[in-house]
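Form P-L/3: holo structure prediction, ligand nicotinamide-adenine-dinucleotide.
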Amino acid sequence: MDSLRIELGERAYPIYIGPRLLGDAGLLERVLGRRDVLVVSNETVAPLWLGRLRSGLGTRRLAQHLLPDGEQYKTMEAFSAVLDALVNARFNRDCVVVALGGGVVGDIAGFAAACYQRGVDFVQMPTTLLAQVDSSVGGKTGINHSGGKNLIGAFHQPIAVVADTDALSTLPQRELRAGLAEVIKYGLIRDEPFLGWLESSLDALLARDPAALAQAIRRSCEIKAEIVALDERETGATRALLNLGHTFGHAIETAAGYGAWLHGEAVATGMLLAAELSQRLGWLGVAEVDRIRALLVRAGLPTDPPRLGRTRMLQLMRMDKKVREGQLRLVLLKRLGNAVFTADYSADELELLLKARVGEAAP
Ligand code: NAD
Ligand code: GLY
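OUTPUT (holo model):
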């Protein structure tokens, strides 16, 4: 088992990465003690992995709540149902909410933990690649609104992340590819050598080579840990870098209808759009943008946004949480491995890019 730590003072916590962790009674006892546990999972993940987790939980007061599966259920109703489960189980403030699943389960369960009795502990047990490299770490929790992705939520750090890499064995290939988008993101924003490693290791990653996956998860979590420790609540310009491609991507997800594009797919296309804008601003060369596109294509990720028209696209992008004082701030690339968060770009170039890539008006 590998482990690292998110250094956040009194909210610091460990990330455990490795095979067979969900059934590891010793590890679970260390993380959860003998406390009451509500496991939140969904109807897809529970039949696959809840048995292993239960085998490691020993005897304790244990309740479970299964959510319907899908981004379209990341709603107020789903959130409310988790709170009902906590109340019905008569759990007190010393209970622990365990999120067993992908980013949707983790975001909803974490938000419920943030709100129940003004905040109870929760543990992330991510089962998708995307959740193991990104959503389980850093304490962003929440739900969608019909007007925009993740518009309602709270910062609430987990007390631990337990990433059992065996869980990835049952993940559909499309979901694995979507998770790779967020892994590629870390190379683009922070670590050009890691990007090179991803280019040479991509075939092994797509074939789920355990050593390659473990290395990708480890490096992604290290970069996320470093950034979250610097700017936990995204008050500065650092944590926003983790949102490379997300302003474009969230607009695509919202326009397409939640669940039509996977989050990682929308982020992949969004990262390419951010790179193309960076090229228009003279920051990236054509060869660098081609390199990004080639990697995304090899990973089986989409690189063309839907033709929703630039007005609609901009309207949705302006719902982004990074808008301040009316200014749409974007994460762009000064060079590969060096992202910036800025409002200092040409709005005309953004308009021209959107016109070329999403069309002039909705069809
Ligand atoms: P997801 O949670 O929808 O999971 C993807 C699919 O895989 C689902 O159908 C799920 O049931 C299934 N699944 C999960 N684990 C499985 C397994 N081991 N075997 C088989 N099937 C499995 O999607 P995701 O990509 O994990 O997460 C995307 C969500 O995470 C989005 O809502 C996004 O907004 C959010 N997110 C949050 C953060 C954050 O910091 N909180 C960061 C990135 C993304
Ligand atoms: N996924 C973006 C963040 O955690 O800040």
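COMMENT: The longest strand covers residues 148-155.
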